[in-house]
Amino acid sequence: MKIDRYRGWLGELGILDRPWLILGSAPSPTLPAGVLADHARVDINNSGRTAEEMGLGRADLTFRAKAKPWSEHPNLDTHGLLWIHTKPRWYAKLKLRYRPHRHIESLEVLTPKVRERIVMAETALPVSEIGDLGKVTNGIAAACFGLACGVPSIVLAGISLTSGGHSYNQNNRARMQITEDRAVLKALAKRNDISTTEAELAEETGLTLFRC
């Protein structure tokens, strides 16, 4: 895996040496006052719409799946976009011209295969053999990506194993990949560089409950 490529890119964005606050899509995310004063905000998929509604401003990084509908968050506003895509960067950059957004300063791509390899490398788990889909959700994958790149610490917000639906729409879609996410989060809980603002998630997985 060419992690150095991504480390260099994150360094250019100014967030390689900063702790990350990963904002997932679960309803009613817990954001302690002051946490974004020293944490880079990493939006998952369309959670930037929730951040926009909360007045949080531009994201430092957005970790986005190819299949997520752009219509759900047409005002995507981010310094860096890491797009989970099967095509090379030049092709993704071309496609991006036709996707609605407010501001994208820099683009990088991550293939699904590399995404899964990073998760398995950081957890030492055969994730492909766990659960129905054999892969974690993007919020968990983003945490593994950050850890693999050497980010100092990760805080998870807006990530749940129980709440259905998303913070940025009213579709109330059932949550998927629960078994995979739980297994990976329990493995990550053994580390001292990852925590969560969500009390319920901390109780279920053993992750440290973050406090400012």
Structure description:
By secondary structure, the protein is α/β, with parallel strands linked by helices. Helix content is 32%, strand content 19%. It has seven helices and eight strands; from the N terminus they run αββαββαβααβαβαβ. An eight-stranded parallel beta sheet has the order 5-4-3-2-1-6-7-8. Helix 6 (178-188) links the parallel strand 6 (154-157) and strand 7 (194-196). Helix 4 crosses helix 5. The radius of gyration is 16 Å and the shape is globular. The chain starts with a helix and ends with a strand.
Helical fraction equals 25-40%
How many beta-strand segments?
Answer: 8
- Order of SSEs, N→C? HEEHEEHEHHEHEHE
Residue windows where pLDDT falls under 50 for at least 5 positions: none
Number of H- or I-type helical stretches: 7
Shape, please? globular
Estimated radius of gyration: 16 Å
What would the average pLDDT be, to the nearest integer?
91
Report strand %: 15-25%
Strand order of the largest sheet: 5-4-3-2-1-6-7-8
For the termini, the CA-CA separation is 34 Å
Q: Structural class, from secondary structure content?
A: alpha/beta
What kind of sheet is the major sheet?
Answer: 8 strands, parallel
